[in-house]
Amino acid sequence: MTASAPTMLPAATLRAIAKKYGYDAPEIDPPQSGYRNTSFRFRTARGDDLNFILYKREPDIVRLIRRTNALGGYVYERGLPVRAPVDKRILRVGQRHGSLYRYLDGETIPWEAYTMKHIKLLGMAMARFHDAARQFGGEMPDVEDVYAAIVLRMNAYFGDPNVTRALRDKLGMAVDAPDFTALLDQARRLPGRTVLHMDMVRSNVLFREAKAGDGFTVGNITLSGILDLEKAARGHVLFDVARSLAFLLVDCARPGASVRRYFLESGYRKRGGQNLQPVRLPSGDMLESLITLFLTYDFYKFLRQNPYESLPENHHFIRTAAVLRAQKVVQ
């Protein structure tokens, strides 16, 4: 999946938007586009660095913006470097809606470029996020409901005889997915729920060179921003841990044992200060089962979003398939 071309807004419109929030914006950067939105960076006359996010049109988008803004403001006040709104207002711009946020400095980097320090910082930031968001009382979906709907779609897809035939003929593969519905039902009954980010992946995490006074630092690297709270949900922390760990295990250029140690032990437990205990469910070890769920979902998305014939050239797909083959999900 690639970002769409950025939406263009006239400078006069952008300055009028800034005015509505009480700012003069003499400097406006070119727009940057993501999967869901277009962002416009403002530098105001009094030195504020802000970011207006124009969200794409989709059902219930205002409710989603309101929900994520409430969460962002809540955890920002508790010391997390998240994308936080300057106030509660959501503006309508044509047929779309947007909100103004504090700008977060830094850059995303590919998984392959993650070092030991980046992995530790990611674990630390996730632990601190879970702790900061634990008492958030705003509206939030349950993560089990979100993935129950996904599992239904995956089951229908992999159960389609035409898909089975195409996988065999074009990729030489077959899929035998575990009973993820049972996993979700068992996880739903566990205590200790908190708000999860559920998208703390490389495109939503910013890093930069460390400066004096930074709070999320290992060595000379600072984790300076956590973006996009749109997928946040309530559930057990292992859902969030497994989602990010699944990406790291596939795409980070380090041995899996080292990735787990840096992320879980040095990052989440030691630097994040959160206790992370193994959970054994009737369906098996919860963390390992969730990693399999997320890798299967990633595998499914590769198949749905790309011609099968192109996938042997996609190294992310090949790595994901290799891990699932070792787990006997892919044959």
Structural features:
331 residues, alpha+beta, Phosphorylase Kinase, domain 1, Aminoglycoside 3'-phosphotransferase, Chain: A, domain 2, 2 domains, three-stranded antiparallel beta sheet
Plain-language structure description:
With 331 residues, the protein is an alpha+beta fold. The chain has two domains: 11-102, Phosphorylase Kinase, domain 1 (2-Layer Sandwich); 111-326, Aminoglycoside 3'-phosphotransferase, Chain: A, domain 2 (Alpha-Beta Complex). The protein contains ten helices and 13 strands. It has helices at 11-20, 61-76, 116-133, 143-158, 161-171, 180-188, 237-251, 256-271, 286-305, 315-326, and strands spanning 27-28, 32-33, 37-43, 49-55, 91-93, 96-102, 194-196, 205-209, 217-218, 221-226, 233-235, 280-281, 284-285. The strands form four sheets. Strands 1, 2, 3, 4, 5 and 6 form a six-stranded antiparallel β-sheet that branches. A three-stranded antiparallel β-sheet has the order 8-10-9, covered by helices on one side. A hairpin with a 2-residue loop joins strand 9 (217-218) and strand 10 (221-226). Helix 3 packs antiparallel against helix 7, helix 4 packs antiparallel against helix 6 (180-188) and helix 7 (237-251) packs across helix 9 (286-305). The longest helix has 20 residues, at 286-305. The chain starts with 10 loop residues before the first helix and ends in a 5-residue tail after the last helix.
